Amino acid sequence: MRFVQRMFSFLVETEGQLVSKKFDLDKNVKIVHGILFSSNRKSLLFHRGSQRVEISGEEVIAENFESCLFMSGLAVAPNEKFKTFGEQEGKQADNGIPAGNGEVKIQYKDTANPDAEFAPYQVNMYLQCEMK
Amino acid sequence: MIVTQIKRKTVVTMVSIQKQERFRPIDIRIPSNAVSITGVLVTCSANWSNCGTVTLQAGDGTDIFHKAYIGGYTTDISDDAIMGLKDLSFHKPWITGRVPELQQTDIAGDNVFIRAWFKGADFQAPFTIRIYLQYEGAEEFVGIEPTRPRNEENEPKSFIL
Asked: Which CATH number fits the domain B2-73+85-137, given the four candidates 2.60.120.1330, 2.60.40.10, 3.40.50.300, 3.30.70.860?
């Protein structure tokens, strides 16, 4: 099995903005195993961000799901940073989400928070993909 | 061989708590194909240390299965801050990686409605709480896999004379 990480980025330019984006995975991606969110202003993403994500028409992250639940830290080993899909009790499963037609849709919402004053920021979404 | 899979999905419920509010019942509807509740998490947008509690009970009147104390994320105090040095923010969750995560539960039975109660403690401004309930659905059919690999040499061949 060969794994690759794909990065998709977009900008949040105004306070309270709802950003809808559609990205396409490579044709030879078979399964999406994990997801990770990061930003150039991590405190804003942590406190203000929430999103809904669809892969090939299937909702994999429900609306209003906070971005902080999919973030990681510098102190975390690189191999442990991704949040895997399809977890089973007590262990991480390897079933993942089939890439299907490769269409990835994200609806990102910026919400005001007293802990993080707004400034334009970039959101990076990383997907861990298994190739055919 | 019949291949099946069990999917896990999460229901997110957002509730705005007003300044004077001290008690709020919340009904959370889970899709009817849910077999069991496998994870729970309650987060809060405020940064005060003790905003209150959220208690969760399954719809069939069984015992309370989760009680969450809600408060700010940045409750860890760094060694630098204790010693009066300039805080370098090494204790922030996006450095340590200690971001919120679902706690595992296993609540089977009638879970179409989950009842939650918010009980307020000490806060001075409105804030939002989010309740995440991860559920496991019924087994779904995926496809059929051949039990042994096809060997074309042993298959009958047709000849056109």
From this structure: 2.60.120.1330
A18 vs chain B: nearest CA distance in angstroms? 17
> pLDDT (tens digit, 9 = 90+) per residue, A41-92?
999 999 999 999 999 998 999 999 999 999 998 889 998 999 988 655 444 4
**Nearest to residue A106, comparing CAs of A75, A61, A69, A66?**
A61
Q: How many CB atoms lie within 10 A of CB B38?
A: 22
Other beta carbons within 10 Å of A89: 11
* Mode of pairing for the β-strands spanning B8-17 and B103-108: unpaired
B153 SS3 class: helix
Q: Which of residues 16-55 of B touch A (CB under 8 A)?
A: 38, 41, 43, 45-47
B8 touches chain A (CB under 8 A): yes
Using alpha carbons only, give the angle B96, A89, B134 rounded to the nearest 5 degrees.
80
Indicate whether A86 belongs to any domain.
no
- Chain A CB within 8 Å of residue B152 CB: no
